[in-house]
Amino acid sequence: MTSTAQSTALITGAGRGLGLALARSLIADGWRVVVDARRAGHLAADLPGALVVAGDVTDPGHRDDLAAALRAFGRLDVLVNNASDLGPSPLPRLADVPLAAARRVLETNVLAPLALVQRFLPLLRASGGIIVNVSSDAAVEPYVGWGAYGSSKAALDQLSAVLAAEEPGLAVYAVDPGDMRTEMHQAAFPGEDISDRQEPEAVVPALLRLITTRPPSGRVRAADFAGSAA
């Protein structure tokens, strides 16, 4: 994918995993990229050319910092809400999940993306932009132990669907990337071998095709989209 020099993306949770892999690809394609992460000390070296803003998406002050960073560019073409909170590890049943932990999951996975959408809608409307909300199969499948996380992603899916109906000038996707070999996935399966899962880099081509071809808004499984778009 080739973009104009003016195209700008904001990717949250880009310290590792899918966010980091996507940021690398967009930078290589000539995009201006703003990234955030709670652990960001390594990103200046890992993402040369990116504008790195360290912080937590649930913090209003950090969202102010992201807005200030984007003001320097004057536009936003793609918002990727990738930052997520899994909750406690090992994953507890709903009967045992601490309410404070569930609240944190909802704050990170639902309310922070909504806050960022609200904050950046003017820029996205101006560019006719794209919103990619990173979801999960746990949003639609009832896996034991995944109640807090899955419920948050189900809420994010519905948020995406309503936003698409309310903002027809934008493209809004809830993307299930599939299982990946990431730190968060390992935390979901502590002590287990997850080496059979795909690397996050394997999912990036599907996301790039999604951004490039801009199909109708909706829920997308990266594996299906990659196959149909190849």
How would you describe this structure to a colleague?
By secondary structure, the chain is an alpha/beta fold. The chain has a single domain (about 10-230), classed as 3-Layer(aba) Sandwich (Rossmann fold), CATH 3.40.50.720. It has 8 helices and 7 strands, in the order βαβαβαβαβαβααβα. It has helices at about 15-30, 45, 60-70, 100-125, 145-165, 185-190, 205-215, 220-230; strands at about 10, 30-35, 50-55, 80, 130-135, 170-175, 220. Strands 3-2-1-4-5-6-7 form a 7-stranded parallel beta sheet, with helices on both faces. Strand 1, helix 1 (about 15-30) and strand 2 (about 30-35) form a beta-alpha-beta unit. Helix 4 (about 100-125) runs parallel beside helix 5 (about 145-165) and helix 7 (about 205-215) packs across helix 8. The chain is globular, with a radius of gyration of 17 Å.
